Amino acid sequence: MRRDIFQALADPTRRAILTLIALQAMTPNAIAENFNTTRQAISKHLRILTECELVKQKQQGREIYYSLEIHKMKEIDKWLNQFRTLWETRFKQLDNVLSTIKKQKK
What is the DSSP code string of 32-60? Predict the structure, then answer.
């Protein structure tokens, strides 16, 4: 089953995993050490993140390392950018109103 990337991001554990592996690739055991859950539960989260192409796997010897897939993160950033632009515009308008009020009080 192909999942939507935003469904994957809806889970706080999966978001925490993405934050962990953003700095360096990690094995499932190393990732699991950061959570109060089973290694199997972490593997399930990693499988969902992999299905959504938010993480990629790299085999090194007997270990599998998971790292962040930057291209998918850019897709999320592109979606969020529309809201970022909207709020930045609103904050600039608020700054202008506050500056006008401040000038009128002087």
Answer: HTTSSS-HHHHHHHHHHHHHTTSEEEEEE
The values of phi and psi at residue 44, to 5°, are: -65, -45
Q: Name which of 32, 27, 33, 34 is nearest 60 in CA terms.
A: 27
Largest pairwise CA distance in the chain: 71
Contact 66, 29 (CB under 8 A): no
Q: Tokens in use for 62?
A: 């007997």
Q: Check: CB of residue 66 under 8 Å from CB of residue 31.
A: yes
Question: Hey, what are 99's tokens?
Answer: 């500056």
Predicted TM-score (pTM) of this structure: 0.78
Evaluate whether 46 touches 17 at the Cβ level (below 8 Å). yes
The tens digit of pLDDT for each residue in 70-101 reads: 988 888 899 999 999 999 999 999 999 999 99
Q: Which two tokens stand for residue 103?
A: 């000038």
The span from the CA of 6 to the CA of 89, in Å, is 25
